[in-house]
Amino acid sequence: MASSVELKMLGLLVFSLTLLGSYSDPLFSRKLRRENLNQVYSTFNHQPKPISPSTLALSGDAYSEDAFTGMTVLLDESDASVIISLSGISGNWFGVGFDAPNYLMADNPYAIIIDGAGKVSERKLDTPDVGHGPGTLLESSIEVLSAVEIQGNMLVTMKRALVGKSPDHYTFDATKPSIPLLMASGPAAELGYHLDRKSGETLNLAIHHQEKSAEVSTAVGGTVSSEAASTSMTLLLEDSMATVTMSGPSGMWFGVGFDAPNFLMADFPYAIIVDGSGEVSERKLNTPDVGHGPGTLLEPSVEVLSTVEEDGFKTVVIRRALVGASSDHYTFDASKTSLPLLIASGTAAEFGYHGVEQKSGETLSLGKI
What we know:
There is one protein chain. Helices cover 6% and strands 41% of the residues. By secondary structure, the chain is mainly beta. The protein has two domains: 3-213, Immunoglobulin-like (Sandwich), CATH 2.60.40; 220-368, Immunoglobulin-like (Sandwich). The strands form four sheets. It has a six-stranded antiparallel β-sheet with strand order 8-9-3-2-1-12, with no helix packed on it. A hairpin with a 4-residue loop joins strand 2 (69-76) and strand 3 (81-89). The longest helix has 7 residues, at 37-43.
């Protein structure tokens, strides 16, 4: 993404869910993310793994609207572990402090912090004489299972032992029905003062029922962007549906071609094109003898969920069936770990030649959510 795009295109809360980097995700404005927090939270509240009915397991979730941060926790006595899924706004730091009975940093809670690049750290918080300090950096005791960025929010799923690695690492106790928390996020990538983006929350734990925990999430997703085309895309595959979020320059056409192993139009990829007015079309691309042709216009199979234009970029969210409506409509396969793409944009509102510089071949990495 060009530097101007990085500044303008701001990175939905995926609550129990990789463009990793120090800049904000260009797919969703902050306003749009805030409007969709609860929707995505309810959609992606998947437990990380099934639990044996013979062992005690507790689970719960907590969410801070002020901090734009959410968390699910699963305590499993079968292997003395805890799985934590923590989600917040991409490109900004966010975190949670455990065991803060007064909801204050002065409680010196153990905290897990995710920075703007998705890096995880553990800290013992404190309150210095001046301002809000970063606390003490602790030795790592966390295994990162996944880090996925979807529609402007980062979800990191982690695992660690129930018993803390040191007295400063919080020890999770399956006999406690609740844990007082501090949840916060900041306006920058590096950990710092949270401003008004913080709140005290209580994590309530309940018996994790086997019939619900046996459900295994089949959701797959990933995010990719093209610096040359100033265009980004998020793909989410779940159940029988694919949700595609595309963002590109306002007033210009932009699009993505799926399954182009050589990153060429000669691969005849299925493409989704958004024109300058926001109208969406589907095409089977080809390479005629002269120039770059528009390909074949296909019968529509997508549903446009939303269109938002802000800060010089248009973001369109669409949905369609995983299985293509015809042999020319690409069939999405959730078992694939990557997908070769063509990403391009034009210099006019109507679909046409992308120009020499405004296109690139990109690989979309897909991971379980």
